[in-house]
């Protein structure tokens, strides 16, 4: 939204706290969260400007007290013209006496606007001593999150459960982690017991306009501490563009993004596999389900690692099974997640997923393998295995 309005010459600032409001120069306040509607009357009287409530998915309706309008976010730019007082003010604004610094005698207000606009072309500006990013779409990123794509060729093998356990583990280790439900049939919102008010669809509809501050407001914090973006309503999932946009925006925000996908060649699954730093293929130990694995993962050039999920076998047997799996597919096995009755019961009861200590140990081993020595090792032994280095330089997009 900001980009569109800036092109039209309006300085737009995204502020998440009331304390951050500039003292002057505000013409219109747009509240983007329903809970903030109660502030409208006060804001409107303090600043003497109209306040609009504009929330994603909101139906235009009679506005609550203090709000001039109530409409879905983002408000159409043409709509804002209605409220903008630029022309009027330019006429009214007294000219300053011309001086060496201000030869044209531009009014103080206009000078301030010019300044904001100049600053908007930079990446950040300073607001009361705090550095605030201006968001410009699809520029090279200074920071890029690690993207882990969880996928596979079969449903019901434990991909979503594994995604949650991994997100929880990374969060506990201090990583800012966002889990995204890219599965159009997914149920992460239910599993994580959050209200799916925001969905991946937002990244489709607002592909050029969703900005960081809003993103941050709209990510849903789970009881585990990490964040989640529930699935959208689209029967075919996100488009390739929407998927890329999603990862681009989240990249600025998170240390690690975990993408839980639908096990098919759906556009967003394939895109997620291509954008990933590492693809984690989750599979069971049932060999009859392995036939498709090699073909499926040849869709990506990114390093693929397999995770054996819901295992009931003893360690020695598991080792043998993974050797067969590796030689059949050409992809290394990163670790195991044991079948855990406690975990299963927690899911059935709609409780938080904790699992027994064996689950914790398994997840720790997987994390260590992802981020430590093994991950640094260049894998060249087997044909068809990808050469990779997990810690490759950030800030590059391929
Ligand atoms: N490690 C595990 N131990 C016990 N049950 C599990 C485990 N992983 C998954 N499950 C159960 O298996 C079912 C499918 O899991 P889910 O994660 O939704 O699979 P997917 O995402 O691959 O379709 C769920 O009922 C879940 O509780
Ligand atoms: Mg799933």
TrEMBL record:
One of its GO terms (biological process) is negative regulation of cell division. This is Flagellar biosynthesis protein FlhG. InterPro entries: CobQ/CobB/MinD/ParA_Nub-bd_dom, P-loop_NTPase, ParA/MinD_ATPase. SUPFAM superfamilies: P-loop containing nucleoside triphosphate hydrolases. Residues 148-350 form the CobQ/CobB/MinD/ParA nucleotide binding domain. Keywords: Cell projection, Cilium, Flagellum. GO terms for cellular component: cytoplasmic side of plasma membrane; cytosol. One of its GO terms (molecular function) is ATP binding. It comes from the Bacteria. The keyword Iron-sulfur does not apply.
């Amino acid at each position: 939204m900001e980009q569109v309005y800036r092109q039209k010459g309006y300085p737009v600032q995204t502020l998440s706290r009331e304390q951050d409001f500039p003292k002057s120069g505000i013409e219109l306040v747009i509240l983007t969260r329903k809970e903030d509607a109660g502030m409208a009357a006060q804001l409107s009287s303090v600043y003497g400007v109209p306040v609009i409530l504009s929330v994603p998915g909101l139906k235009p309706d009679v506005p609550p007290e203090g709000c001039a309008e109530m409409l879905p976010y983002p408000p159409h730019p043409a709509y804002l013209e209605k409220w903008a007082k630029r022309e009027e003010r330019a006429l009214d604004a007294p000219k300053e006496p011309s001086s060496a610094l201000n030869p044209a005698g531009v009014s103080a207000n206009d000078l301030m606007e010019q300044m904001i606009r100049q600053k908007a072309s930079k990446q950040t500006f300073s607001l009361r001593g705090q550095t605030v990013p201006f968001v410009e779409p699809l520029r090279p990123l200074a920071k890029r999150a690690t993207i882990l794509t969880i996928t596979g060729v079969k449903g019901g093998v434990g991909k979503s459960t594994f995604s949650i356990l991994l997100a929880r583990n990374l969060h506990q280790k201090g990583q800012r982690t966002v889990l995204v439900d890219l599965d159009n049939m997914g149920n992460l919102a239910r599993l994580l017991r959050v209200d799916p008010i925001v969905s991946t669809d937002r990244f489709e509809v607002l592909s050029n306009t969703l900005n960081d501050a809003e993103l941050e407001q709209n990510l849903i914090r789970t009881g585990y501490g990490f964040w989640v973006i529930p699935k959208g309503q689209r029967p075919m999932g996100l488009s390739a563009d929407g998927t890329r946009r999603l990862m681009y925006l989240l990249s600025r925000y998170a240390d690690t993004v975990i993408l839980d996908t639908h096990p098919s060649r759906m556009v967003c699954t394939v895109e997620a596999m291509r954008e990933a730093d590492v693809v984690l293929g989750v599979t069971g130990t049932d060999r009859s389900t392995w036939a498709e694995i090699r073909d499926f993962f040849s869709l990506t050039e990114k390093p693929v690692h397999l995770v054996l999920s819901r295992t009931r076998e003893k360690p020695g047997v598991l080792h043998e099974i993974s050797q067969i799996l590796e030689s059949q597919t050409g992809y290394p096995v990163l670790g195991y997640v044991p079948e855990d009755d406690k975990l299963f019961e927690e899911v059935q009861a709609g409780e938080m997923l904790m699992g027994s200590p064996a689950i914790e140990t398994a997840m720790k081993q997987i994390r260590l393998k992802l981020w430590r020595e093994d991950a640094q090792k260049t894998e060249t032994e087997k044909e068809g295995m990808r050469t990779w280095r997990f810690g490759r330089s950030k800030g590059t997009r391929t």
